[in-house]
Structures are given as C-alpha cells and as structure tokens.
C-alpha cells in the first residue's frame, strides 16, 4: 500500500527519499516494532475494536516476519521507515485487511515506544558489563590490599596509598555510572503507545494492557508528551557520556603509569602496539583509542540536546535525526567498556615500584605534621610550617625522608618557634613509614586494608543485588 497515493501526487525523487528515510538506523528497532505491532493488535482484538479473525491473520504474519528476519522486508528508501516496511510486509502476506493493524496507532507513538524498548535492552546489557567490570576491580583490589603506591594531587607526589584503595575509586565511579543508567531506565519505563499522532483516539483502546504486554510499568499520562519527548534519550546519553568519561580517565592513568618515568604499570602485550620505526617501543595505543573514541559521546550528547531544544511540542520530524546519534553513542560506549575492562584486568601493577615511589619525595610529610599535633600539642598550622621548612632544608642538604629524625625536627622547630618538640625518635620514624601511614588511615573511605576490605564487602553486596 503506497502511503502517498491519497493526499499527494507522485513520488519523492530518489535523492529526497534517501535524504529523509530513517530505514538505515531503524534496523535497530526492527524487533521492537514487531513487538509493538503485536501488542497493539492483541489489545485491539481484546477490546473488540477489530475482528478476531483479522487480528489472528495479522499476528500470524508478524510471527512469520519474526522468523524470516529483517531481510524479508523491502527496505527501499521510498518506503520511508521501518513501520511502513513492516506494514507493507503484513499487507503482502494477508492483503489490505492488514490496514486494520494501524487503527488507533500512529508512527509517532510507535517510534517513541520502539526506541524505549530497544534502549531499555541496551541499558540492561551495558549494566551487566558494568557489574562484571566492578567484580574484576574488586578481585584486583583484594589481591592488592597492601600494595603501596603514591597518591597524587596536581599530578605531584601527595600521600602514600595502596593500589587497592586507588582501584576502588574506579569502582565507586562505575557504581554511580550504573546508578545513573538505572535512574534513566526507570524514568523511561512508561509506555507512549496509544498516544497515536498526538491526542490519542476515540477508539476504546486499553493503554494499560499494551503497556503491560510490552513490559512497561504503565502508560505515559499525556499523549502530546508521549510523542514529543526524547529526554529519555538525552538522559541516557548523558549517563553514557559520564561513563565514557570514567573510562577515559582510567585509560589516561594507564597511559601515564606505563611511561618509563612512572613505570607503575605494565600493560598486556595484547593491548599494546609498537612503532614502525622505533623498535624498542611499547605503546599504549588501545588506551589512547578509548580516550579518543569516548570523545564521540560528548559530541553525540550535544547534538541530541541541540536537536530537541528548539522543537515545539508534539511530533516533529527532526526527532528522527536523534536516533542515529543515540545508536552511535551506545555502540561507542559498549566497545570502549569491553576494551577498557580487558585492558585493566590484564595490566600488571608493579608493587616494588609503587613502594619506591611511596617512600620517595616526602609523601609522608602530612603524617609528620599530624604527629606534631598529636605528640607535641602544636596547632596544625604551626606543624605544617615546621614540616614544610624541614622538607626545604632536607632538599637543600640532599637528605631523604628516612634521614629525618627527631633531632633534625627540633632544630627546625627551635629556629621557627623557639621551642623543641621532643618527640620520641621511634615514633618519628614510624610516621615516615608508608606502611604505618596506610595502617593508621582507618577512617571511612581511607586506605587502611581493613577499611578497604570493608568497602570491598559493600561493593560485593551491590554486585550481588544487581
Ligand atoms: N521515522 C520517523 C522517526 O524515526 C517516524 C515516523 C513519523 N513520521 C511522520 N511523518 N510523522 O521519527
């Protein structure tokens, strides 16, 4: 049945048909379109809006199409979109009575419903991957509870921590990314079908029933909103963009940590490349590609927001242009997620180097200042000044952190405050030892192995519940 044979004279040129057709990216909603047609037809029969015998024929044709697959459809761009292609198929099987399938339905409510069905499925898949990723991180963290490393601020040595503690910072970010997808999923879980073109229909349709048949928690409560809104796409793509940002940051660290200067991590050979001219090179190309590709998500998000921002309510064909950007975002994210997960799990953290860096460059300075507050009763700001001066003098004299003792600190203190501190030397030495520093940070969220273990337990509960 040609949609244009009523109101319009003649066909679109090939050029215009190609330009306006959504068929190429509608492939992703083929399955969903069969589901919406099936649910709608079932409801129409139940409500006695169309005869049961015709309903049966429509359902049989849809079943046949499901078996034959998308290749059974005529996907010429003159057909316009997947909804017309499916309807044409059903018509080719059973004749013009197929037209009853479109009673009280528009492509406007159908495309919104199809997109939600397909996107809910995509979200579930990505969430499953995320859970696996978090599990992998928890295993790596469990094996590295005592593996020292230095933590950075401004990418400068800051304080000692452990590899487990650092890894859990990734896990927490990924958990929030999971939560954002979950929120988007729940908000989109209302069915647009039955909105029809924009004001529903005078047929006594049962929207609760179609929503139920399609696995939604209920119908959307305004039919204009039903056909206009794509915030569910913008929101999901934001969640994916944020997740892409998490992955990009993980890759950024792997790139930095695998440099000769840091030498903290050895990437798997299967996630590295070499140079065509410099034979010695081992390059973190895969991490770089993730970092580069995830930028696509930022672009897709802005494109989607820009398309929808200027549209009046109800259906406008611009909405069709949102769809390819949605699928580009989900595909980019899915591949980046799988690759980053594989890359991190095959990366070897170099514990000895981690410890060397944790002991170097006065990363224990904060703990030393804390000790002066605790054991010498100094206000923190005074302690901060004494330790700061001690580090400057030590650097001038070529001393290392382990060369600092209570005598040295007393000299500095005497000079700055006119008083000595008289802290037990063994205690000073302890406060300079990264292992002891880690053990003493038992505050919630801190790096003490006992605390990290507790957080691993909480995250394991999260993994089990999801
Ligand atoms: N292909 C369209 C889309 O993806 C759905 C069809 C609505 N078309 C129309 N002319 N009202 O949004």
From TrEMBL:
Pathway: Amino-acid biosynthesis; L-arginine biosynthesis; L-arginine from L-ornithine and carbamoyl phosphate: step 3/3. It holds the Pfam family ASL_C2. It is found in: Cytoplasm. Residues 362-418 form the Argininosuccinate lyase C-terminal domain. Residues 6-296 form the Fumarate lyase N-terminal domain. InterPro entries: Arg_succ_lyase_C, Argininosuccinate_lyase, Fumarase/histidase_N, Fumarate_lyase_fam, Fumarate_lyase_N, L-Aspartase-like. One of its GO terms (molecular function) is argininosuccinate lyase activity. One of its GO terms (cellular component) is cytosol. The keyword Lyase applies. It is an enzyme of class 4 (lyase). Its EC number is 4.3.2.1. Keywords: Amino-acid biosynthesis, Arginine biosynthesis, Cytoplasm, Lyase. It catalyses: 2-(N(omega)-L-arginino)succinate = fumarate + L-arginine. Signal peptide: none annotated. The keyword Calcium does not apply. It comes from the Archaea. GO terms for biological process: L-arginine biosynthetic process via ornithine. HAMAP family: Arg_succ_lyase. Belongs to the lyase 1 family. Argininosuccinate lyase subfamily. This is Argininosuccinate lyase. The gene is argH.
